[in-house]
Structures are given as structure tokens and as C-alpha cells.
Amino acid sequence: MAKVYAFLADGLEEVECLAACDVLKRAGVEVEMVSVNEGREVTGSHRVRIICDSSIGEKAGFDDADVLFLPGGMPGTLNLMNCTRLTEALKIQYQRGGRIAAICAAPSILGKLGFLEGREATCYPGFEDKLAGARYTKKGVVTDGNITTARGLGYALDLGIELTGLLVSREKAAEVKASIQYDQF
């Protein structure tokens, strides 16, 4: 079974995270929501409180990850970027060729870490200049090698479907898409 760690920080865009995670769970992917706060509770940019499965301080590492997923939102993206344990985990995942996904403003973290050099990537409008070295596209979701980026909240389901296709199968992605009555993408 595929394993995804979704990292949540105060100020995240709640639906970007929850929609993508929901689609993955429907596909049978194991998803663990990890708070980068000291505790497990995270408050989103729209004041929705989320209780995560764990906090980053409780984890020894993320070596079993098939995907490390970064939801966007502000100041959530900045809070993710300021978490040293997370950026170290991202570097390890990238160096070993593991998959990383980010949506909205969060692809800017990948740009800052140098992961987008020479890759096609997308992000929330206004963050294009933070995708250092990337070939920016206005596509809603784009996968280039082991990096998947998505533009924003309106593409959160598409991101979940794309990751399902990559982790499980395109058939399973189509099945989940049909089951949720989603006829886009």
C-alpha cells in the first residue's frame, strides 16, 4: 500500500489538503496528516481546526513515504518553509528520488530548495517568480519526474486524482473520480 505524508501548518488552505487526502484515502492509499506544530492541532487560514494523526516531533523520519505532500495557503506555506525538520525530510526524499507534491503557494518551497530546476511546474498566480529554475505553466496539475505541482484550491481534487494514478493506477483514479461524481480533468 502506498504511503503519503501530508504536512499541515497553521494558516494552511484547508480544502487543498483535505480534498487531495480524501481522494487518496478513497483509493486505498495510506495518508498520514502530520502537524508541523508542537501538538497535533492545526488551524487553517479560514479558522478551521484540524486534528492531525501525528506531529512532526513524534516522527523518527519519513523513509517509508511514497509522497511528501505540501498544501498551500498563507501563512501556512511560510510556516512549512520555516520547519527545519520538514525541509530536511524534503531534501532526503528528493535526493533518493522520492515523490513530492505541492499545491498553491507551496511549490515555492520546492523552488527555494532548488527542486524545480529545469522542470515544468505550476503554482498559485503571483508565486511564479518563486519557482526558481522551473518552466512555469498555467496547467492545473503537472507532474514532471518525481515532482507534482498544482495551481490552487480549484485543482485539489485533480491533484488527488493525479497522485492516485501515479501511486495506484490510472484505472483506480478513474474509479474514484466516477464515484465522487467528478467529471472534470
What does this structure look like?
The protein is of the alpha/beta class and 185 residues long. The chain has one domain: Rossmann fold (3-Layer(aba) Sandwich). Helix content is 32%, strand content 22%. The chain is built from 6 helices and 11 strands. The chain has helices at residues 14-26, 76-81, 84-95, 107-112, 156-167, 170-179; strands at residues 3-8, 30-35, 41-43, 49-51, 54-55, 67-70, 99-103, 120-121, 135-136, 141-144, 147-150. Helix 1 links the parallel strand 1 and strand 2 (30-35).
Key features of this structure:
185 residues; two-stranded antiparallel ribbon; 7-stranded mixed sheet; Rossmann fold; alpha/beta; globular; 32% helix
SSE inventory with pairings:
Blueprint: E1 3-8, H1 14-26, E2 30-35, E3 41-43, E4 49-51, E5 54-55, E6 67-70, H2 76-81, H3 84-95, E7 99-103, H4 107-112, E8 120-121, E9 135-136, E10 141-144, E11 147-150, H5 156-167, H6 170-179
Parallel strand pairs: 1-2, 1-6, 2-5, 6-7, 7-11, 8-9
Antiparallel strand pairs: 3-4, 10-11
Helix pairs in contact: 1-5, 5-6
